Amino acid sequence: MTAAVAGTVLALSGGVGGAKLALGLEDVLPPGQLQVLVNTGDDFEHLGLRISPDIDTLLYTLSGRANQELGWGLAGETWQAMQALEELGGETWFRLGDRDLATHLWRSQQLASGRGLAAVTADLARRLGVRSLVYPMSDDPVATTVHSDRGALPFQHYFVRYQCEPVVTGFTFEGIDAATPNSEVMCQLRKECYRAVVICPSNPFVSVDPILQLAGLWPALRDQPAPVIVVSPIVAGQAIKGPAAKMMSELGQDASALEVARYYCARYPGLVDCFVIDTSDAKLAGEIGELGLEVAITSTIMKSRADKQALARFCLALGGA
Ligand code: FO1
Fold first, then answer.
1. Which atom of ligand 1 is nearest to the CA of 95?
2. Are 232 and 276 in contact (CB under 8 A)?
3. Phi, psi dihedral angles at 187 (to 5 degrees)
4. CA angle 262, 143, 244 (to 5 degrees)
5. What would you report as the CA-atom Rg of the chain, rounded to the nearest whole angstrom?
6. Residue 278 · residue 311 · CB < 8 Å
7. Whose CA is nearest to atom 26 of ligand 1?
8. Ligand 1 pocket, residue 53 CB under 6 Å
9. How far apart are CA 228 and CA 226, in angstroms?
């Protein structure tokens, strides 16, 4: 057991990669000092239910319930409902486990009763015993569309139904112009409450961009005093998980940590203070540094709990955090 590092930390996260670092951060921070702002661009209505995949990945990971093999859903899951649905000729391309279904039923019922997604998520987190604050990026609906050689695809159709096979040409976030960022986070940014902001190793295009594109959010992150630290989701030319590297090459970029750094600098000038790369990418440090970023090199592959904690501690030691 090592000593905790005090001060509230805000992490921006998509699904599995972000949840791993969030778990490490939660472990090394005192209880209640981690807040996670989560992408909801992947959310959709399916079988009449509201599904929030990235929120659930965070809640399941932080409550020790995550299915490590699948990378989504609950551990020890059974699939009776999906089997029965298949026998009825229903849609089963997006698999909802029996226990996971309870989450979607509960959330959908709560939302239908008029509660907002942030309140429902906080309640769910409490019921699951999550110690950190997990905030949806917005209570307003935002839906990621993937533009591709097979046309404009709702995110889950691209990701799950077509297994990320279509060649991407761009992304849009339907509803983003009318969406308001989470009010708690905006309030705490204005009050300069954070000691660090960590942009987790999540997909820049479909996990982090929907969050940063919410009205006023990235300028508020840039203008508050805590360091903004990005952990590269690309290691040695590969995405740690998911289609980020494939998307980069289809968009005409090199799949590299350097290109990720260039992307953040071009799209969000002045936002990022520190950029964390894996030791296998150490040779890129000079060029990333020339972008005006502090470059930090460590092992960013999070296999064990100790790896997650080590990366979390490393991030919290950067930029005066
Ligand atoms: N991902 C899959 O690859 N196949 C599935 O059938 C699937 C079902 C699913 C159900 C609930 C949930 O919360 C997530 C689920 N995911 C599934 C994962 C998810 O769609 C993606 O990993 C994220 O949206 C990307 O972060």
1. 6
2. yes
3. -65, -45
4. 35
5. 19
6. no
7. 15
8. yes
9. 6
Contact 52, 60 (CB under 8 A): no
Output the residue whose Cα is nearest ligand 1's atom 14.
53
Is 67 close to ligand 1, i.e. is its CB under 6 Å away? no
pLDDT by position in tens, the chain (length 321): 333 345 899 999 999 999 999 999 999 999 999 999 999 999 999 999 999 999 999 999 999 999 999 999 999 999 999 999 999 999 999 999 999 999 999 999 999 999 999 999 999 999 999 999 999 999 999 999 999 999 999 999 999 999 999 999 999 999 999 999 999 999 999 999 999 999 999 999 999 999 999 999 999 999 999 999 999 999 999 998 899 999 999 999 999 999 999 999 999 999 999 999 999 999 999 999 999 999 999 999 999 999 999 999 999 999 766
Q: What is the DSSP code string of 71-106?
A: SSSBTT---HHHHHHHHTT---SS---HHHHHHHHH
Residue 156 alpha carbon, nearest atom of ligand 1:
20
Structural contact between residues 35 and 197, judged by C-beta atoms closer than 8 angstroms: no
Q: Which phi and psi (to 5°) does residue 61 adopt?
A: -70, -45
For residue 243 and ligand 1, the question of a CB distance below 6 A is answered with no
How is residue 105 written in tokens?
């039923």
Q: Is the CB of 72 under 6 A from ligand 1?
A: yes
| Predicted TM-score (pTM) above 0.70 | yes
Residue 14 Cα: closest atom of ligand 1: 26
| Residue position matching structure tokens 């020890």 | 76
- Pocket lining: 246 vs ligand 1, CB cutoff 6 Å: no
> Which pair of structure tokens corresponds to residue 3?
């000593």
- The answer to whether 228 and 271 have CB atoms below 8 angstroms apart is yes
- Residue bearing the CA closest to ligand 1, atom 13: 53
- Atom 1, ligand 1: residue with shortest CA distance: 160
Q: How far is the CA of 7 from the centre of ligand 1 (A)?
A: 33
Domains of the chain, each with CATH number or no CATH: 8-318 (3.40.50.10680)
- Which amino acid, residue 260? V
